Structure formats: C-alpha cells, structure tokens
Amino acid sequence: MNRATDAPGDVRSPLDGSVEEVEGFLARVLATDTAVPFADDAVAFCAALSRSLLEARGARDHPEIVAAGYWLRAASIDRMRSRLLAQEDDATILVPRGRVLHVTPSNVDTMFLHSWILGLLAGDVNVVRMSGRVTAVTERVIEAIRETLTNGEFAGLVDRSHLVRTPHDDRVSAALSAVADVRVLWGGDETVGHFRAFPMPPRGRDVTFPDRHSLAILDVDAVVAADDDALERLAEAFFNDAYWFDQGACSSPRLIVWRARRGVSAEPARKRFRSAVGAAIRRRGYVAETGSAIAKLVLGYRHAAADENVRYVADSNEAAWVQLPRLGGYDRETCGGGLFFEYVTEDMEGDLLDFVGPRDQTAAVFGLDGTAVRALARHLNGRGIDRFVPVGRALEFSAVWDGYDLLQELTKRVVVDVRPSAGIASGRGRPRARDGDRRPRRRR
Amino acid sequence: MDGVAVAPGPSFSDVVEQLLERDQYAVAADEKGRILVGALEDLTTYHRARCVEYRRILDATAPRPIPASTVADLPYLPVSLFKWLDLASVPSGSVFKVMTSSGTTGQTPSRVVLDVETARLQSRALGSIVTHYVGRGRIPMLIVDEAGTVRDRRRLSARAAGILGMSTFGRDHFFALDGEMRVDRPGLSRWLERHAGEDLLVFGFTFMIWQYLLQAVGPDAIDLSRATLIHSGGWKKLAELSIDRETFRGRLRDAFGLTRIHDFYGMVEQVGSVFFECPAGYFHPPDFADVLVRDPTTWRPSDVGRAGVLEVVSLLPRSYPGHVLLTEDLGVVHGVDDCTCGRLGSRFTISGRIPRAEIRGCSDTHEPRH
C-alpha cells in the first residue's frame, strides 16, 4: 500500500518506492533464508553492479561512485573471498550470522552500499536502514542497484537485500533490533547510543562505529623537496581525502601534523602545500557555500580566542587553516567543508603519544617511510589510529575498518570435527586403560 | 581587564556625543566615513587592550595597516561568535544587563554584556532615531502584543526587549492582544476614543501585525490614520505565506488608514545599529553607525548596487568588542547621499539571510534540524 506520506510505523523501499508497515515487513524478513558465504550469484552481482556504477550517468562528476564501483570489481571481491575462505578447512565451515541490521550514516553517501554488500557476501539476510538524507550520489547509486538487482539472474538476492528508509520511529528501531543477530551501527556516538537502548536477542551483537577523527602527517622536508609535479599529485590526493563528502567522513583529515627537523621552519612547506591545495580546489571546481566560509571563520576565531599564538589563514572560502601552537586544547571538532588545523612538531612520536586517543582513526601520511610509520604505530601501541595509509587513500573503504574485520564479524565459524578418538574406532564400549597396553594415538 | 590607558587622540566618546546630539541622517557619506574610521580604529585599540579573546583573534589574522584608512579595512568579527564566546571589555562586576537574541528552538542564542554606559548609549541611540521619525514628546502607544510578554523582567526575550525599549517613547501604553492573542476590540475602541485626534505610535513584530492585528478587522472601523507604525522582526514567516512588503503595507492602509509605516532592522549583537526604513522604502544607518556590503566570494567591499553580505559598524559598544561585525544577512546598498527622502548616508535594503551551511553529521537518528 502506497501512502503519500509515511506513517510512523512505515518502512519505505527506495528501490521500488513501496511502503509497508513494519510488522508486515518483518514477517517477510523473518521468512527469508540465508545463503552460503560468497555464493556465486552474490559474487556475480558485485561484478555486475561494479560495471553499472562505473558506467552510471554522473559517475564522472562523482569520484565516490567510481571508487565504490572499483571496490566491487571482480578482482577486489575475489581477494576478499580468498581471505575469508582461507579460514575454512576440514574442521571449520564458514556460515552467515543470520539477520543483520545495518544502520548507515548520513555523512558518507556510499557507506550503505559497502555495509550491505559485505552482509550480502557473508550470506546474511540484510536490512539496510539508509539515511533519510537524499543526495545526487545516493540517487545514482540506488539507480544502479535497482537496474542490476531487477535483472533476473539476481532475483534470489532481493530478499536478502532490504534497503529501506524508515521515519525516526523508536518502534521500528526496536522491532528491527529485536530480530537482529548483528547490528552494524554507523553514524557516530549518537547513533550507537540511540540504538543500544533497543534490546537485541541474547545472541545478538553490535559492530559499532562511534565518532572518529582523522589526520594527515606530512613531512616538511619531503614537501619542500617535491618537484612541481609531485606536489601537484600530493595536492590532488589530499583533495580527495579532504573534500569528498565535504570533509564529513570519519576518515577525512581534520588535522595536519607537520613533521619537522629540529630548527627547520615549516613555513615554506606549509605555504607551498596551501598554494598547491588551492590550485587543486580550483581545478576540481569545488565551491564552498557562503555559510560554510562563515562557519569556518567562526570556528577558527573560537580557537584563536582560546589560546595565545593561534594563526588563522583563509585563502578562499574553500580552505581555511588554523595553526595551533599546541594540541592540548584541540577538541577534534570541525564544521567541515575545508577547515584544516595544523600543528608543527619536532618530536612526532612524543607529541602523538600525548595526543592520540581512541577517537583517532586514520592517519594519511606523506614523506614518512614504512619503517617510521611502523615505528610510530608500534609506539602508539593501540592508543589510537587504526589505519595508516598514503595521502589520497584515506577514504578508500576496506573490509577491515576501524579495527573490525567486517566479513569476520558477519560470519560464524562452525566447528565440524567428528573424527572418532583413537580407541573407540569400533564405537563400542569405552576404552579400558591397561598398563602396558597403551598404543600411541595415530594423528592424521 | 588590563589597566591600559585608552589610546591618545580624538576620543570616540566625544565623537559619539556630538553625533547623538544632532538630528540624525544629516552627515554626508564622505565626512561620515572619515569620522567613523578614526573612532572605530580607536575603539579597536580600546577593546584590544581590555578583552583578551579579542586581542588573540586580532593577533591570529594577518597584519593590516594601522590606522585603517577606510572602514572596510578594519577587522570584523562574525556575528555568531557571540553564541560561543563571552566577549567582554569590562569586569563581570560592571555588567549591568545581558542581552540575548531570540534563538529559535535548537539554536544557541547570542549573548552580549552591557555596562551602565553602553546601556545608556543604547537608550540614547534609540531615542535619537525614534524621535527623528516620531517627534519629541511621548505619544499614546499601541503595542501589538499581549501584556504577559513583558511580565518577566529578568528573562527578556527579544520581543520583550523590543517592546520595553520602544515603550520609553510612548505613554498610556495599550496592549492590543489578550492572553489568547485575540484583539481586545472593546479595549482598543476605548483607547482610540480616548486619543481621538492625537498622533499615535504603534509597535509590534512584523508577523504579529499580520497574523493578529490584520486578521481582526471587523465591522467597527479602526482608524489608525494618525498613527506611525514601527515594526520589526523580519519577513521570513510572511515570505512563507507569499506576503510581500507591498501587500503588507497595502492591507494596513486599506484596513486602518495606516500609511506611516517603518520597518526596523537591528540586532542584539550590535548596540546602536538600529536601522529604520524611510518613506522611500530604504533603511538608513544613523550617524553613529554604518553598513557596508561585502562580496561573499572575495570578501572585499562591493560596489553600490551589488548584493552581498552586510557588515555593520557602530561607535556605541563599550562593554564588549561589537563595534565591527559581519552579519549573516544579505543586502544591497543602493545609493549614498541620494535618497529621495532627503536623509544623507547610505540607503540599503535587505535581501534575506545566508542559508545555513549544511553540516553533515554522520548520525541519522533524528529528524533533520533546520
């Protein structure tokens, strides 16, 4: 039954526009069977959807769509498959967890796709509660999904793929939680807190993505030494990390930590970098709203007011830079849209050891070699920063995210080990231990 | 607060005194610019020495030539900073009054602190403007609101503050609306009879005038042909109803014979910035304040006739550094010293607010906030 506006207990499908009450919807979900992990049709679907996204109208204007399409391509899915199925052996079978409720965020338009696809590949029955926020990117992606899913050969996947939008109704959230084996909660502290209030079955578990903060670590000497081409490439890469999703993703760098040698000023490097990023912004045609420019000014001035020696530079409406003399007062909050806090350090490991915490997720690095990065990660020893990637790959989604191996979380391992013990090969009676009668157990 | 002396030179207090004493709107733009830039530069130095947060903000941005040669070269604060920071140039013991903006639900209100001197200047500023339009001497005043709005003097909403501020210019105040926001017709008729033949002052919020006063037109004529209406509060709600300025004024004329109507634009964040609309339909800054328009991309001052973001300046704020502010309103300066109403200085209109930047939170657990 289609209603003009949704009543509180309604569940709407963006794929076909149908609306139904939550009870009816749940009955259908409960009646659906799971499939085996990496079933052929699911794998083939990913390849088909990949092609569909890469060829989607508007893909050219939205590199996020291209990135999602790329992630779905056969080689990528195949790697995930090999990695997961390597855990299967004679005594271990991988099975889906069952029903997965994905609560997906409003800041990263393509996250619902990643979450859902992993659940689909895991063999689960998926309810994907999408953000109410509709953007050009989500519309294009839904279009591509709709086209591909309605293709006859993938009909079997439809029932395991309930992409829905629901009004913000506690009754619906509670009902969906009550039947979920796993809840994948994107959307920060607020979403996690909100959903934790709704009970799950005792076997149910949450995979949570609370508020995260990300940074970039750039080496001063490397930026100064880079030739113009290399600098341009760096600026383009940084643009991708910083400006996709208007700097709103958890992996978007909000802070730039400049590693400097003792006594060497970071100013030339910073100026060069700012200028190159400005050029990248113009090339890519990113234009900020006036309100965003003012929001950055307000936040920048708030920081300036709070401490001595803060410096604020806004080259344009698109990029504002707030240099902090110390990290102690930095609260990790941003208004996004191109506001970058900067901190120069001559003791990177020491300063980051003091600063880094559980909220810190991604560090995008440039000019640090693998040894230095590993040493830093070792030094931090889990205080924070779950991923170190090169600048340009901060937003590259991986099935290992925020410290979770998501395919692992969405599957179970069933132990099948029915080898009879030595001594009861005939299955009759129990062995009697007799001195001198012991024979070594044969191992297979 | 440091014990630092005010910078030597022409005292901005003297300048303000002179400008408040004269009849308003009589200073030509060039002369006004010269007077203002010197006094505002002095005020910048004054607040810099007394408000540590303000000094840090000034120090955080690129150096500029001091003294500034034009008002546009002075550093500005964005108006919503007053939602987040308590900026004061006086010790807390000297705070006489705290003004807050109305802050619609879900939004943090702005707060500014006034000492006795700033509050007094605010009163005098409003007085010099109102008397310019309405004449000296208190006249009978009709308030299009209900008496309960101003009951709690300790927690002044913006509506209450506006009413109380204007009330000093009137006498025999009559609240037109009862507790249910209906026009008290018998009361209103009696009040009008009492003051038949006299000039009247009517004050209210724009939306309330439309919603309550105009809807109450009935068989008995309400004659406001001798009244001056001063209304404030923006046009957003009326714009949602597709009511424009001409429609609003036309209905008031037809219903009540009301022709002297002045819109009033001001903000809690800047004392003294009270802009009344002249009969030709333009806002004019008083002589101790001014407005300029900035291009929203380059932030440089725009040419006359081009729309942009409004910056407002005022010589009045003493207790807090609110003398040069960038608003979140868009507008146009249409001309300078050339208004058909005869008032000198800039004439400007307001086009609307800057749309709020959509800040992407990652959570989607609540209905979107507007």
Report on this model:
The complex is a heterodimer of chains A (444) and B (370). In chain A, 39% of the residues lie in helices and 19% in strands. The longest helix of chain A is centred in the middle third of the chain and has 18 residues, at 267-284. Chain A contains 16 helices and 18 strands. Chain A has helices at 22-30, 40-54, 63-71, 74-85, 111-122, 136-149, 155-158, 170-178, 188-196, 220-225, 228-243, 267-284, 290-306, 348-355, 370-380, 406-409, and strands at residues 10-12, 19-21, 92-96, 99-103, 125-129, 161-164, 182-185, 205-208, 213-219, 253-259, 311-316, 319-323, 339-345, 360-366, 387-390, 400-401, 404-405, 411-415. The relative contact order of chain A is 0.12. The mean pLDDT of chain A is 91. Chain B contains nine helices and 14 strands. Chain B has a seven-stranded mixed β-sheet, with helices on both faces. In chain B, strands 1, 11, 12, 13 and 14 form a five-stranded mixed β-sheet that branches. The chains are: A alpha/beta (444), B alpha/beta (370). Chain A binds chain B through residues 103-108, 131-133, 168, 186-191, 194-195, 211, 245-246, 248-250, 289-295, 297-298, 300-302, 304-313, 317, 335-337, and chain B through 53-54, 56-57, 59-62, 77-78, 80-81, 84-85, 87, 296-297, 309, 326, 328, 354-368.
Sum up the structure in keywords.
heterodimer, A: 444 residues, alpha/beta, seven-stranded mixed sheet, five-stranded parallel sheet, 16 helices, 39% helix, B: 370 residues, five-stranded mixed sheet, 9 helices, 14 strands, globular, disordered N terminus
Summarize the structure.
By secondary structure, chain A is an alpha/beta fold. Helix content of chain A is 39%, strand content 19%.
